[in-house]
Design a protein that fits this description.
It is a single chain. This protein is mainly alpha-helical and about 240 residues long. The protein contains 10 helices and 2 strands. The mean pLDDT is about 90.
Length: about 240
C-alpha cells in the first residue's frame, strides 16, 4: 500500500510536469471533468505532440517524450499494484475488515484494505479515540478560562488520515444506494450492511447540516472525516 501511494504521488508530479510543459506554450486541454487523463486526454496529448510542438525544437520534443513516457510507466506500475493489492485484499488476515469497511460510501476495496493494514489492531482504539489517533481533532490553545480551538492536529498516521479525508467527500452527494454499494453489502453480514447504511445516511445528513450553516467545504469535509473514522471503527471491530 505504501508503494502504491508512492506511485500515486509520482504520477501526480509527472502529469503536472507534462501539462505545464504544454501550458507554457499556450496549449490547454479543452475538455473538463472526468475526461482529464483518460483516453480522450491521451489522444489530445498525442495530437498536441504531433501538431502543436512541430516548431518547438528538439529540446522541447525530447522533454515532452520523457514526461509522456514517465506518465505511462507510472500508470502501468500503479495498475499492477492495484491488481496485486486487490488479490491480497480478497485473501488475507485483513479481508473481513476490508469487506465490512466497504459498506460505507467512499471506501473501495483498495481504500478499505489500506485502512485495515495502516491501523492494524482496531481494538486498541475506541470510537472516541480513533479520530484523535489519526489527527482529525482540532488543536487547542487554552489559557485560564479561555479555550481556543485551532486546525486539526494532523498527528498519527498520515496515510490513513488522507484516505478518510478523500472518502468523506463522497458523502456530500445525495445518498441513493446503487448497484456497487448493494454488491458490497451482499458480501458482508446483514449487521455490517445495516450499520454501513446507517453510517451513510448519518454522514450525508451531517454534510447537509454543515452546508446549511455555510461552513467552508474543506472544514465541513474534515468534520465528516472525523465522524467517518468512528463509523469505520465500529465496523472494523464487529464480530
Amino acid at each position: 500500500m505504501r508503494a502504491r501511494d508512492d506511485a500515486r504521488i509520482e504520477l501526480m508530479a509527472a502529469r503536472h510536469r507534462l501539462s505545464k510543459l504544454l501550458l507554457r506554450r499556450g496549449i490547454v486541454y479543452p475538455g473538463t471533468g472526468t475526461g482529464t487523463w483518460g483516453r480522450p486526454h491521451d489522444a489530445w496529448l498525442r495530437a498536441a505532440r504531433r501538431d502543436g510542438l512541430d516548431e518547438a525544437g528538439i529540446g522541447t520534443l525530447a522533454a515532452f517524450d520523457a514526461s509522456y513516457d514517465a506518465v505511462a510507466q507510472i500508470v502501468a506500475r500503479k495498475d499492477r499494484l492495484d491488481r496485486e493489492i486487490t488479490a491480497m485484499a480478497a485473501n488475507s488476515e485483513f479481508t473481513d475488515v476490508t469487506t465490512r469497511l466497504g459498506c460505507l460510501r467512499g471506501i473501495s476495496t483498495l481504500t478499505g484494505f489500506a485502512l485495515a493494514v495502516e491501523i492494524g489492531d482496531w481494538h486498541r482504539l475506541t470510537g472516541a479515540s480513533i479520530a484523535a489517533y489519526l489527527g482529525l481533532v482540532p488543536s487547542e490553545h487554552s489559557s485560564g478560562g479561555t479555550r481556543s480551538l485551532g486546525p486539526i492536529t494532523k498527528t498519527g498516521n498520515t496515510h490513513a488520515r488522507r484516505l478518510l479525508i478523500e472518502s468523506a467527500w463522497y458523502h456530500k452527494h445525495d445518498y441513493r444506494p446503487g448497484k456497487i454499494m448493494r454488491d458490497r453489502w451482499a458480501h458482508a453480514s446483514a449487521a455490517a450492511a445495516a450499520r454501513g447504511d446507517a453510517g451513510n445516511r448519518r454522514l450525508h445528513h451531517r454534510w447537509m447540516v454543515l452546508a446549511a450553516k455555510h461552513k467552508k467545504h474543506t472544514v465541513a469535509n474534515t468534520a465528516i472525516a472525523r465522524e467517518l473514522a468512528g463509523w469505520c471503527w465500529s465496523l472494523a471491530v464487529m464480530d
